[in-house]
Specification:
Elements (H helix, E strand, L loop, with lengths): L5 H4 L2 E4 L1 H4 L10 H6 L1 H7 L3 E4 L27 H13 L3 E7 L8 H6 L13 E2 L7 E2 L3 E2 L1 E4 L4 E4 L14 H17 L3 E5 L19 H10 L3 H15 L8 H13 L6 E4 L16 E2 L2 H4 L6 H16 L9 E3 L8 H4 L6 H14 L3 E5 L20 H13 L4 H11 L39 H5 L5 H14 L1 H5 L1 E5 L6 E7 L4 E7 L5 E4 L9 E8 L11 E4 L4 E8 L1
Parallel strand pairs: 1-2, 1-13, 2-3, 3-9, 9-10, 10-11, 12-13
Antiparallel strand pairs: 4-8, 5-6, 7-8, 14-15, 15-16, 16-20, 17-19, 18-20
The protein binds 1-deoxynojirimycin.
């Protein structure tokens, strides 16, 4: 094909290792399990894997609190298990990127243990220490951002939980140690990194306090109960005001340039994907990150044609404006931090149709798509009912804060916690209709409860045997994308942009023009594109349609079915 890099044409699939496949039957996902599922992943038609953290961790934040950057968590297996997984992935032409957490370590990491041991040890300055809390900053997970350490009689800063102290990135030794860890995995052959929370790496050097008249628990509680437009606006303003001095600060660009230089020492176009939506982190398009996520696409109550068009216009203009012209888009609608696509963007009446439309959206838009494990079988959020089930510490902290400090009734607190905790979208992958959804043996309790809807067809095995399942639908779409040069590299040209019901656009390259129409409504439309410049005197050849469309060519005038996903090649002459 063209000169595009592998990560530009690839479809990525996020594996949340704790919940993906339990190979040794202890209730927790592991490398043995993932490796056994590689054939499944290859058959799905994805090209690359993003593995959420697999490093040793006390798991206060489900692996995002790392206590050793150059090792494998024992519950996931051994280094040899990892190497086998990497090797077997590569054999199947599946690339692998790892999660790189730069902002903080675990408080059990030897660097922090040493740093907190005295004020004058060699790592004394590796974290952010103060004699007393210099301001009212909050941690976005668990209250005050400054936590007392008796050993030093000082306070350390943490943007996330108190078990996740922030590294002091102004210290060159920190950089060196972290770049060593980065090289460790690149030397083993991994294909790049997804960079965690890069916006939080530096803080306002003036330590300017926030001016929100609430603490974190009060703000979360206020947000949960905000109903009127005024309250909703205020809630958004408060979230921004509370944390604006703790992220997005100067210094990240230089750091990303340094990291890019490290990664570019390696062959194979290793990639860096930033967990941030700020296009600026792509630098000039060639000197910082290759990709940042288009989070604004999913930051909405409802996916509508109007929202998508606005998003695409803003996003693609910004990318096109990058100095080198080498920017590239990156789209997703879900990950381990947010409600599952099927639940979040459903409307309770047409969830199945909307899930299909949204899958088609991510797989046909301009840019590299990221999928989250389980979305291909329509996994939904699962609401926990008892606080003892909650594993996401951010959720249990919130529950106790509102019950104990704010007097919220435990039942109400549990409902709110079930809604806000990320456990709901991290439940184990549903492989079959067997007990425990085939994730773990029947007599084992998985680390998080299994969503009982695995018994109702929301599982891989049943869907593999059902040609009209969502799983087959994903496979089909992925195949269409793979076979279509324009869906991978074509320009985006919106069409009939006044429709509030359907989203129509072309993907056009010098090799092919493809028409995509996503009908987000239950209405039928008589569509006519015969006067559209790119389709004048041309026919359409169906590449994919969720309605029963005849395969032969026809004029670009046709009836669009309710909730139809229609993809066609424009054929001239
Ligand atoms: C973003 C990760 O996606 C999330 O799961 C984690 O809790 C925070 N960063 C802190 O590392």
């Amino acid at each position: 094909m063209s000169s595009l890099k592998w990560w530009q044409t690839a479809v990525f699939y996020q594996i949340y290792p704790r919940s993906f496949a339990d190979g040794n039957g202890d209730g927790i996902g592991d490398f043995k399990g993932i490796t056994e599922k590689l054939d499944y992943l290859a058959s799905l038609g994805i090209d690359a894997l993003w593995l959420s953290p697999h490093f040793p961790s006390p798991n206060w934040d489900c692996g995002y609190d790392i206590s050793d950057y150059s090792n494998v968590a024992s519950e996931y297996g051994t280094m040899d298990d990892f190497k086998l997984f990497l090797d077997e992935s590569h054999k199947r032409n599946l690339r692998l990127i790892l999660d790189l957490v730069l902002n903080h370590t675990s408080d059990e990491h030897p660097w922090f243990v040493e740093s907190k041991s005295s004020r004058d040890n060699p790592k004394a300055d590796w974290y952010v220490w103060m004699d007393s809390p210099p301001n009212n900053w909050q941690s976005c997970f668990d209250g005050e951002a400054w936590t007392y350490s008796p050993e030093r009689n000082q306070y350390y800063y943490h943007y996330f939980m108190k078990q996740q102290p922030d590294l002091n990135w102004h210290n060159p030794e920190v950089k060196k140690a972290m770049w060593d860890a980065v090289r460790f995995w690149l030397d083993l052959g991994v294909d790049g990194y997804r960079l965690d929370a890069i916006g939080t790496i530096y803080e306002d050097p003036n330590l300017t306090p926030h001016n929100v008249p609430m603490n974190l628990a009060q703000l979360r509680s206020f947000s949960d109960t905000a109903k009127t437009p005024k309250e909703i606006k205020l809630k958004e303003k408060y979230w921004h005001e509370m944390f604006k001095n703790q992220w997005g600060q100067a210094g990240v660009h230089d750091l990303m340039k340094e990291l890019r230089a490290v990664v570019d020492e390696y062959d194979g176009d290793r990639v860096l994907v930033g967990e941030d939506d700020n296009i600026d982190y792509m630098g000039n398009g060639q000197d910082e990150l290759q990709l940042v996520f288009n989070f604004p696409l999913m930051r909405t109550e409802k996916i509508t044609p109007t929202h998508i068009r606005k998003n695409q216009k803003e996003r693609l203009t910004q990318i096109d404006n990058l100095a080198s012209g080498a920017g590239w888009a990156c789209n997703t609608l879900g990950n381990h931090d947010c409600s599952r696509i099927h639940t979040r963007f459903g409307n309770k009446l047409h969830d199945a149709q909307l899930a299909r439309l949204n899958a088609a959206l991510v797989l046909t838009m301009k840019g590299t798509p990221f999928l989250y494990n389980g979305e291909e079988i329509g996994m939904t959020d699962y609401m926990l009912t008892d606080i003892s089930q909650v594993k996401d510490t951010m959720g249990s902290w919130y529950y106790h804060a509102i019950v104990i400090d704010m007097g919220v009734h435990p039942e109400e607190a549990m409902l709110r916690t079930a809604e806000m905790t990320r456990d709901k979208n991290r439940t184990p992958m549903q492989w079959s209709n067997n007990p425990n959804a085939g994730f773990s043996p029947a007599d084992v309790s998985p680390w998080l409860p299994i969503n009982p809807n695995y018994k109702d067809g929301v599982n891989v095995h049943d869907q593999e045997n059902n040609p009209s399942s969502l799983l087959h639908y994903y496979k089909h779409l992925l195949r269409v994308r793979k076979e279509s040069p324009s869906l991978k590299e074509g320009e985006y040209i919106p069409l009939q942009t006044t429709s509030k019901d359907y989203f129509a656009f072309l993907r056009q390259s010098d090799k092919q023009t493809v028409l995509v129409i996503l009908n987000y409504s239950e209405k039928v439309f008589e569509l006519d594109f015969s006067r559209t410049k790119e389709m004048k005197n041309a026919n359409l050849k169906t590449l994919f349609s969720s309605a029963q469309r005849r395969p032969d060519q026809f004029e670009p005038k046709f009836k669009l079915s309710p909730f139809e996903v229609f993809i066609a090649e424009v054929v001239r002459g």
